[in-house]
Write a structure and sequence with these properties.
single chain; mainly alpha; about 75% helix
Length: about 110
Amino acid sequence: MTQHWRTFLARSAPPGAISDFSATEFTLGVAINLRYCLNLVRPTPECIDLAELVLLRAANYGEARMGLKPQLFAEAENALAQATRLLEIELEYCWVQAAKECRIRAA
């Protein structure tokens, strides 16, 4: 069983140096990819909370990158990376639990 949610979570990473960056477009893309991730596992309440945190950090990152907030760009990028890593750990837990349930039902 593959972990397709990892593909969508990876798409939530900040883009590199691009000239036409849009904070709104980036945040919307993160929201869509998070939705796909959560639909591919049985999310726990913690998983949903962490997904909301990632979305908030993505919005903060976009605003910092666009220069709309005084928050330092590097801090915003680091906060987004940390929140994404925490979500990845929780999604892994959800995925493992769902796989165990499938094996138990099959037995």
